[in-house]
Write a structure and sequence with these properties.
alpha+beta; D-amino Acid Aminotransferase, Chain A, domain 1; 2 domains; 9-stranded mixed β-sheet; 6-stranded antiparallel β-sheet; 8 helices; 15 strands; binds 4'-deoxy-4'-aminopyridoxal-5'-phosphate; EC 2.6.1.42
Length: about 325
């Protein structure tokens, strides 16, 4: 059954960054009717700017909008709005190798509701910010804790889309993990408490005997665009990649573990702690395969290697 709302978005305009007005009884503030996206613009060494697969973010926000009973911009509107915003903020795109411009599209029920219902009006906006590495470790291994008490998503819930409430629900587990010295939390499925799902803001991969495995997309994890891209890059480099149920036992027994996401790119995992037991991968340094995939993806995103897949969109 579909819940899409029909509606068209007006042309839109560029505005200086600053506070926006929202009605106190807007659906987004009261009922969390909001979704967002995250993508990056990199500067090529020639000076021009590259977006990475922006139409994938457009398709994902459309899918999320349907789940949240919201209308969404078309792929063309989304990609054009991203391009316009980035071009207007060109000077904030760092030089090659010095970071990127993070782009945050946000779609929300800005119309007024009192009883629980989808909003009668919606706002789509985009803001940007220059960023460096997501984890303070940079391309150094991160240390994750496997969460056994809190869950990020349940079957039938909204774990498969980028809705704002998913991030509110992980704040507590993440804060506890950080206070205990971990970089982030790795969630397990809420039914068996046995299969890997994902980290608060990235997907997870395990390598064992040259085979790379990652949890299959089944509605409770976000279909990451980096995840999808890394699967293709790894296959093109001759790796066997499996999308399936991956158990926590396999995680503990892996040769290498890494996470993928727009913000984290490819982050090697140095250690995992599960029920008080800590497992270190290799010598705790950056794994060979993680490093290889990181280099392949980042050189594509920065325009340093030949984009055979046609994934980058160049802006002058
Ligand atoms: N999982 C979650 C929960 C996320 O927030 C993100 C970041 N968007 C990802 C995975 C990775 O997705 P992507 O590669 O598209 O950034």
């Amino acid at each position: 059954a579909k819940c899409s709302q029909n509606g068209t978005f007006s042309e839109g305009e560029l505005q200086p960054f600053g506070p926006i007005e929202l009605n106190p009884s807007s659906a987004v503030l009261n009922y969390g009717q909001g979704i967002f996206e995250g993508l990056k613009a990199y500067r090529k060494d020639t000076g021009s700017i590259l977006l990475f697969r922006p139409e994938e973010n457009a398709l994902r926000i459309m899918m999320g909008a349907e789940r949240m009973c919201m209308p969404s911009p078309t792929v063309e509107q989304f990609v054009n709005a991203v391009k316009l915003t980035v071009l207007a903020n060109k000077r904030w795109v760092p030089p090659t190798g010095k970071g990127s411009l993070y782009i945050r599209p946000l779609l929300m029920g800005s119309g007024v509701v009192l009883g629980l219902a989808p909003a009668p009006e919606y706002t789509f906006l985009i803001f940007v910010s220059p960023v460096g590495n997501y984890f303070k470790e940079g391309l150094a291994p991160i240390n994750l804790i496997v969460e056994n008490d809190f869950h990020r998503a349940t079957p039938g819930g909204t774990g498969g889309i980028k809705t704002i409430g998913n991030y509110a629900s992980v704040l507590k587990a993440q804060s506890i993990a950080k206070a205990n010295g971990y970089s982030d939390v790795l969630y397990l499925d809420s039914v068996h408490k046995k299969y890997l799902e994902e980290v608060s803001s990235c997907n997870v991969f395990v390598l064992k005997d040259k085979v790379i495995s990652t949890p299959a997309i089944k509605g409770t994890i976000l279909p990451g665009i980096t995840r999808k891209s890394i699967i293709d890059v790894a296959r093109s480099q001759g790796f066997q990649v499996e999308e399936r149920l991956v158990s926590v036992d396999e995680l503990l027994d892996a040769d290498e573990v890494f996470c993928t996401g727009t913000a984290v790119v490819v982050s090697p995992v140095g250690s995992i702690t599960y029920l008080g037991k800590r497992v270190q991968y290799g010598n705790g340094g950056v794994g060979v395969v993680s490093q290889q995939l990181y280099s392949a993806l980042t050189s594509l995103q920065m325009g340093l290697s030949n984009d055979e897949m046609g994934w980058t969109v160049e802006l002058d």
